[in-house]
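This part of the workshop introduces the protein records we will be handling. Getting from the letters to the C-alpha cells is the skill we practise here. An example says more than a description, so a record of this kind follows:
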Amino acid sequence: MTMLRFAAVGDNCIDRFRPSGLSLIGGNAVNVAVQLARLGHEAHYFGAVGDDADGRRTLDELASHGVHVDNVQRQPGQTAFTEIDILPSGERVFAYEDFGACAGYRPTAAQIETLKTMDHVHIGWMDDQGALRETLCDAGVSVSQDISVNADARNLAVSGLSIAFGSAGEDATVADAMLRRLILEGAGLAVVTRGAKGASVSDGVRTVTAGTEPVDVVDTTGAGDSFIAGFLSARIAGSDWNICLESGRRLAAQTCGHLGGFPQHHLVQHASD
C-alpha cells in the first residue's frame, strides 16, 4: 500500500451515552483521521478542543493511534459533547449537542499552508461558510467533505470538491437524486451511502453501486466515517471505483463490530442525569 499524507479538518466531540454514562470520542473528522492512520497513512487532525480533561483525553487518544495532533488548537472552555439517549429498543436519540471549542474554529494562515501540502484533505463539520473548502480548492488541493454532518445550508456548498460524500438512507430515489445534485452543484465525484443497501459513486456519466459487507453489528457509530476513510485510502492511491467501494465497506463493517467510531484505549464513565 502507498502511504499518503492526509489531513482531516473540523469536528471532534465526546459522545455521552445515557443512561449508561459511557462516553466515547467521536466526530466525523476525528474518526476519518484515526481510520486513515490505522490503515498506515500519515494522518493529521486539524481542529480545536477545550482546555479541559476531555480535550486532553481526545489528544492522547488520537496520538495513541498514530494521528498527528500538533496542529490542534487548545481553546479556553470545554470540548464539544453530545448527549445520546439509548432507548430500551436500542435506538439512539441525540438529545443535546454543544459544539464547545469546535464552534468558530478556523485553521491559522500557517496551518492552511500546511494543509496545502497534503495529498488530500477531508473536511467534516465546520461553521466557516465554506471558506476553507474554497481556499483549498482554489489552490488545487484534493478536497472532500461529508455534507451529511452539517445541518446549516451555508456550510454545505460542494463546488470544487474532488469528492462529495453524503448519506441518503435506503430509498433508491433519494440516493440517486443526491448523486445527481452533488455532481450538478460542482463536485468532481459524488459518493452516497445507502444504509443497509450499500453505497454508490458517480461522476454524472456512470454510476457504480456496491452492497454492504455482512457483519454482526455491535454499534453503527462512525461506520459512515470509516467508509469515507476506506474509500479515500483507495481513491487517492488511484484505485478504480469498485476497489474504493470495497475498501470503504470493509472498513465500515469492521467498525460496526465494536463500540464507537474506532477502538478506544480509555473508556470513561460520566455521571448520568
The chain has a mean pLDDT of 92. The two ends are 47 Å apart (CA to CA).
